[in-house]
Amino acid sequence: MKNRLKRASLAAIVLCAGYSFLNSAQAQTTGWGEGAKLQDSEVVVEKDRKIELPRASRNFQKFAVVTPEPGERNVRYRFNDYRLEDQDVDLQMRVLTIKQDELSKLYGNYVKAGIGNYGTLYLKGYFHNKRSNVASYGADVSHITSARGPVDGRNSAVTNSAINLNGEAYMQGLTLGGKLGYGRDKYHFYGYSPVQETTVDRDTISQVFNRVNAEGYMHNHGAGMPLLFKAGLNVNYLNDRYDMRETNIAAKLNTEYGLDDVSAFKVDADLSLVSHKDSASVSRTLFKLHPQYERQLNAIRLSIGANVAYTGDTVNDARKFNVYPTVRVGVEPIKDNLLIYAGIGGDLQRVTLYQLTQENPYLAPNVRVADQNKGLEVYGGMQANIANFVHLTGRVAYQNFRNMYFYNNSASDSTKFDLLYDDGVTNVLNIYGEATFNYSDELRIGLKADYNKYSTATLEQAFHRPELMASVFATYNFYDKILFNSELYYIGSSFGRITRPDGTFGLRETDTIVDLNLKADYRFSNRFTTFLMVNNLFAQKYERFVNYPNKSINLIGGVSYSF
User: Fold this and answer.
1) Within 13 Å and on the Cβ side, how many CA atoms surround 509?
2) 41 or 29, greater pLDDT
3) What pLDDT, on the 0 to 100 scale, is given for residue 70?
4) pLDDT at 378 exceeding the cut of 60
5) Are residues 215 and 260 in the same domain?
6) What is the pLDDT of residue 2?
7) Are residue 167 and residue 209 in the same domain, yes or no?
8) Quick one: 211 and 296 in the same domain?
């Protein structure tokens, strides 16, 4: 309190001094004469002076607050729709997407040409439309000829030419397709022993096959329907230089009806009508019906059915009507990686000259053809995938056949082959194995082996049917620049029965064949490639058929162009 008073007294003194100074300043405005001089004055400051204020009276009465009278209150609300003015601004919206992988450029056509020893000319062409989900169509042509062969130069020449057309149309739930082809194969019966100073007329030993095949089919596979079917009609026509003609009209129908997710009913039907004419006219009819029921029981697959077949063959007193029960049980302990199966069955297999002359073009005229009757087959096998790289297949079967055909040199002309049939049942033990290793698209290695142990009823040997055939193959793709292909195959020896000059018969064993084929392609660009093929690298003139040695080493080199 004292400090406050001190500050108040000091303020009063300052105010008084200021007031006196202002009065003096006003007096000086009159001039600088004698009358304007400051007068002496004395200021007294009392330090201990106290300022006393009277005591204020206090009012203890309460204020009265008047309560307002309640009245009606009408509240009005106003809603204003505030909108932004329309602006003519083009706002671009960009949707982020994942970039699609670009499809590699596809060349639908290529031509290939090369030349080699033995006067070999190698020509191939492939012409096809590009990617399309509406239709697929194309054509391929081939002409491979060797002006000389392993025996008597031009007398063992060979020519194979072919042209094929194909097409498919893809509709809603249905696919229609067809094929048409023509082939001309020319061979010579060079299975004789050349004699010095004796010339064999090439025209008298030549053989020419003309082949025509036409096929039409339709199916709805992949349509997601409970009933799936595939129907086809095929016509094959063959004639040769000796006025032989064969026509085969074959119809085939495969159906499958899914009863539910684990069971289905299938019916397959085949009809084949063969008309054969040479020195005699023969008609051969084949009909097969194969109904079966399939069911999946967890890891077990079960198939039960019957194969009913009829043949019109008369060779070797063929059985006309045949019924074969079919049962197959499969177990899949590791889904999609291991399958073990076993079963029994039988079948009537169609045999025609069209296929026999492709297997052995040196058949004699007027041979008689019969269907193979596989009366009983007991089999078992397995399929396995290991780490998606190794694929294994194995099968063991015990079979018995009637009218299994064999090739043998004709008694009247050893350069030609007759068809022989075992008079009785031919038992066969078959063991087949295959292993392949696939590493991406770069390396592929495989091994195949097919062993057949024949037990004939009346024939001395299973003529020209080797017991063991095996092959080892490999492909290697080096940076899509160099592609290597190789195949080493083995064919065991077999036997043929020959007629000696004195009219007696004897057995003759064919060669054991070990052959190595190599092929290399070098890509200069996506369009231009050179290639080199080497066949029979070991240069063995082996005999697959008695009296018919094969070519020695055969080299073909050339180029191919894609567009």
Assistant:
1) 7
2) 41
3) 59
4) yes
5) yes
6) 46
7) no
8) yes
